[in-house]
Design a protein that fits this description.
7 helices, Cytochrome Bc1 Complex, Chain D, domain 2, 2 domains, binds heme C, mainly alpha, 180 residues
């Protein structure tokens, strides 16, 4: 009697183990699709700068190799990339960052952004600064992320790739890269 039960338990665990390994195998073969790759390899969980609450950003918006890499590593691949930095400078002007933070991001109405110290210490990291630009702060800095910046037009706002380029440009004015 006891032996039968043991046998059943053993069989069940074998079946379970087989099912699990099948599932893992599925995931492995599936990584070709963007969504699966991003969710399976997504090591970064974003939090907002206001309250540190979980911040959900549609993975489909991470639509360039650099943006996808950032989603996995939390590091900004554009740091030190001259072309990206030039584009980041343009985006900084296009989205009026210049008006509040000054032409060299050293401060105007808004604070300087070059560090090494920040009002929100997390901005010393590129993941932290990404979250701040994407979702804004409590004191006068609105969300700039695509879909959040303009409630009347959700196609408006900065894409993740553009945010990374803006950050790469900002970092050229300070002593930290944010990828430390
Ligand atoms: C309307 C003015 C305004 C605009 C436009 C603006 N900001 Fe800000 N920003 C502020 C203010 C004010 C703060 C300080 C917020 C606070 O104290 O909570 C701030 C804070 C920040 C911080 C955090 C600084 C710290 O010390 O922690 C970052 C990073 C930042 N802004 C980046 C940007 C970028 C990039 C853009 C353009 C996409 C931008 N801002 C556009 C006003 C602005």
């Amino acid at each position: 009697m006891k032996l039968t039960r043991l046998c059943v338990t053993f069989k069940l665990s074998v079946i379970l183990a087989l099912m699990l390994s099948a599932l893992v195998a599925c995931n492995k073969t599936d990584t070709g699709s963007t969504a699966t790759a991003a969710s399976a390899g997504n090591a970064v969980s974003f939090v907002d700068t206001q309250e540190g609450k979980p911040l959900v950003i549609d993975v489909a918006l991470f639509d360039t190799p650099a943006a996808r890499e950032f989603l996995v590593t939390g590091k900004n691949p554009y740091i030190g990339n001259e072309e990206a930095v030039t584009q980041g400078h343009k985006i900084f002007g296009m989205y009026s960052c210049t008006q509040c933070h000054g032409p060299e991001a050293k401060g105007q109405v808004g604070p300087g952004l070059v560090g090494p110290t920040f009002k929100y210490p997390k901005n010393a990291t590129n993941k932290g600064m990404f979250e701040t630009i994407w979702h804004g702060t409590n004191g006068g800095m609105g969300a700039k992320g695509k879909g959040l910046m303009d409630p009347t037009d959700t196609s408006n706002g900065i894409t993740p790739d553009e945010v990374l380029k803006v950050i790469a440009w900002i970092r050229t004015h300070g002593d930290i890269t944010g990828n430390e």
